[in-house]
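Before the break, one more example. Copy the sequence into your notebook; we will annotate it together after we see the structure.
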Amino acid sequence: MVNYITEIHMEGASSATACSPAMIHAVQHLIEKCLLFYMDREECVSCLQSNASLKPAITRIVWDELEKCNVEFFAAYWRRRKQLISTRQPPPPPPAQPSYTTDCIKENFLQH
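Here is what the structure looks like once it is written out:
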């Protein structure tokens, strides 16, 4: 991304819950990782909440600010994501796992 945000204002946030520039930068970096997988905003929020223990509100605010600062990038991103999703085929089913019985194991591996 070209434009980075340096400050966010959380409505109703006290100074104890305000985000430092370093925190904002870290969240931006994590969002960029999600963008590599063509996640949408809520997929990214969920991913960062479960994997990085980030509060959803912080991720949403940083995402929204990034979209405001990078309009052209996100327009292209959403077009490309839509294209990928429309051409994506469902993954093939996993191969069937053979079921081995004890007799089969005895016959094949425990022969003297």
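The mean pLDDT is 79. The chain has five helices and no strands. Try to locate both features in your own notes.
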